[in-house]
Amino acid sequence: MKSAANRPPGLGDSADDDSGVPETAEPETVGEQTVSFRPIRDDDAEPQGAESDDPGHPGGPDDLDDLDDEDAAREEPGFWADAGPGEATGSEKEIPLPDEAAEVLARALGSLKETVAGLRFGANAPGAQEAAKAREEIIAQLDNYVVPRVRMSTAPALVVVAGSTGAGKSTLVNSLAGTKVSATGVRRPTTGTPVLACHPYDRGRFDQGGLLGGLTRVEAPGPDTGPGDLVVAPSERLPQGIALLDSPDIDSVRETHHDVAQRMLDAADLWIFVTTAARYADAPAWRLLRMAKERGARLAIVLSRVPPRAREVVVKHFVRMLTEYGLGEAERFVISECAVEDGRLPEAEIAELRMWLTGLSVDEERRDQAVRAMLGTVLDSFRTRVPALARHVETQVAFRAGLRADVDDAYGGALAEIDEVTRNGALMRGEVLARWQDFTGSGDLVRTLSLRKPGRFGGKAARQAPERQRALKSALRAGLEAVVISSAQRAAEGVAARWAVRGTHGERLAATPGLSDATDDLARRTGRAITAWQDHLVAMIRKEGVTKRTVAKVTSFDEESLGLVFTVGLLGYGMPEIEGGPGPMPQRLLRALLGAESLRHISVKARNDLRARINTLFDEETLRYARALDGAGIPDETAASRLYQATYNLEAAR
Fold this sequence. Notes:
The chain is of the alpha/beta class. The chain contains 19 helices and 14 strands. The protein has helices spanning 69-74, 100-117, 128-151, 169-177, 255-266, 283-295, 311-324, 347-362, 364-421, 430-441, 444-447, 459-500, 503-510, 522-544, 549-552, 559-571, 585-594, 596-631, 639-653, and strands at 28-30, 33-35, 37-39, 58-61, 157-163, 195-198, 216-218, 229-234, 242-246, 270-276, 298-306, 331-336, 449-451, 555-557. An eight-stranded mixed β-sheet has the order 7-8-6-9-5-10-11-12, sandwiched between helices. Strands 1-2 form a two-stranded antiparallel sheet. A two-stranded antiparallel ribbon has the order 3-4.
C-alpha cells in the first residue's frame, strides 16, 4: 500500500489521530461538488495483496455509514445475482418518460441529424476530407450520445477509459470489474473491439438503440468482431449507475481503431485518462488531454507503472505539467509499478479510483450534474461545429459555381464565335463559294425566277438545276457543321484548361476521361440540327415571305432555291464584297423579291432559330460537366442555409 507521505497532493491524503486510526479524509472537490471519503479502518477486511503498513487505505464515502441493512446488502457481491440484465427491483425507479421540453429538443436534434446526414462532399472538392470527417463526427455523436442521452437522462454515467497504446487501459478496466472482461497483452494494439463493463442491473440500459447505438452488441469478442461491435460485460464489482468503456487506442496505428476511439470519447459523460510514468510526457498523451480540455470533459487522470523509488519526483513533475496546462484541478490517481495477475492489478492499487467511482454512484446529484454538464458542453459545441460545417459547404458551393462558370464561359464564347462567323461572310470560302458560283454562273439562279408565261424554260438546263441546288445546300450545311464542331471542341479544351488552373481538385476533375473533347455523337446531332434549320428556313419563306406586289404580278420563285439565296445572304448580310465572292448581290435580289421589311423580319427569326439550335447542342454538350460535378458529390446552394436553420432551431429548442 502507498504511504500518506508519498501521495501527491489531491490523491486522497489523510491524517492519523492519536489512537492510530485514521480520521475521516478531508473533503475532496470534484468540479463543483464536494464529497467526503473515509479510509478503511483496521477491523475492515483488507483486500488481497494489500500491504498491512498502509495507514490510509481508502474505503467508501461517508454516506455508506448511514445505509440501512437493505442498502448495505446491495453493496455485497451477489446481491444483484438474481436480477437479470435490465430488470429493476421494487426499490428502483423506472426511467421517466421524456418531458415535453426533452421531446422538443429531441426533435430538433433529429432534424439536425437529417440535415447533416443529407450532405455529400466530393473527393475532388477543396476541404472535402475535413468536411466529411466533421459530418461523420457530428452524426456519430448525435446517434451514440446526444439523442439517447436526451431521451434517457437517468441512464448510467458512461465513463470512457482512454489513453495511448500500451498505457494499461484494459488492465485497469479488468481490475475494476474484478474479472477479465477485456483482452490484455504485449501485442499492440490489443483492444480491437470496444468493451463496456457495467453492473448487471444497468446492462439493459445499454441495449441496441440507446447510448452507443451505432455499435452492434456482442457477448464476447471473436474472430468476426471488430471496431464496429461492442462487448457488454456485466460485473457485480462495479457500482450501479457507472459504466466503464474500454476503447481502442486513440493513437492506434490502425485507422479504424483510431476512428472508433474518437467515437467512444464523443459518447462519454466522463473520461478516465490513463498514461504511464514512462510516457506521460509523450505527444499523444497531451493531444488527448488537450482534446479533453477543449471539450470541457470531466476528467480523471491515472498515472500508472510508477516506480516506488521515483514516485515523488515523477508525480511532482506530472502534477506541475498538468497545472501549467490548466488541468491541475483534475482528479488524479497513482498506480505503482507492480505485478499483474490474470490481467488485473492488486486491489490496493486501484482502491482510491474505485472509491471515486463509488462516490459518483451513490451521489446521484453529483453524477447527474456531471452528465448534464457534458451534454451541455456537447450541445454548446454544435453552435460552432455546425456553422463550421456550413462554411465547408459554402466553400464547396463556391467551388462548384466557379467550375460551372468556367463551362458557361467556354461555351458562351464558342457561341459568340459562331455568331460572328455566320455574320461576316467567313463561311463563303472554299467549297461553299465554289458551289455558289456554280449555281449562279450556270444560270440556275435566274431559272428559279420563272415568268408567268409557262414553258419559257425547260429541257436539260431545268433538269440540272436541282443537282446544283442540292450541292450548294449540302456545302452550306457542311460549312455550318464544321464551324459548330470546331467551336465545341475548342470550348471543351477551354473548360479543361480553366479547371486545371483551379488547383489540385480542379485538375483532377479536368482529367476526367472525355471532358476535354467534344462528345462522340456531336457531328451526328449537329448535322440533324443544321438540316432541320434549313428546312425551317424554307418553311418560313413559304409561310411568311410576301413577294412585292409589283414583282408578284409577273414572277414566281422556287422556295428551295430562294432559301439557299437567303442563307447565303444571311451568312454575309451587309458585308462588303469579298475577293472572288458573291458581293452584295444576294441582298439586292432578296430586297427586290421580298422587300426590306419582310427580309429583315425573316432574317431575325432565322438567325435566332439557328442560334437556339446551336445553343441546344451546347447545352447537351455541357450536361456531362454537370454530371461530373454531381458525381463529385459537391452540395447544392441550399445546403448551407439548411444547416444554419437547423442550428437556429436547436438553439430555440434548448
